[in-house]
């Protein structure tokens, strides 16, 4: 799997970290960032975006999807933070509707 538009899903706020707000960071709002709403961004709802619900998307519940709960040879990688952190981020920024959408797809473990 290509690592384009993905990042380590850690809690580091420095360059290259999951919580970094600069270019390449998971919380970056520019192109390629986890908070970017354009094509291939973490907030994008179209094919290739982190909010996409179809195969390969961040909200897909089948193998390879971000909401899949089983083992997988090719697990989902993303440029968005771990789901609980991402939901909090959305709520802090007035995106309750998106936070609720993600919660509605969260599996019960």
Fold and architecture overview:
The protein is mainly alpha-helical. The chain has two helices and no strands. It has helices at residues 83-92, 96-105. Helix 1 (83-92) runs antiparallel to helix 2. The radius of gyration is 13 Å and the shape is globular. The model has no long low-confidence stretch (mean pLDDT 80).
Provide the descriptors you would attach to this structure in a database record.
single chain; 109 residues; mainly alpha; 0% strand
**Uncertain residue ranges:** none
What string, H for helix and E for strand, traces the elements in order?
A: HH
Mean pLDDT: 80
Output the number of helix runs: 2
The count of β-strands is 0
Q: For the terminal residues, how far apart are their CA atoms?
A: 27 Å
Percent in helix: 10-25%
Radius of gyration: 13 Å
The shape, in one word, is globular
Instruction: Note the main sheet.
Output: none
Beta percentage is under 5%
Q: Structural class given helices, strands, pairing?
A: mainly alpha
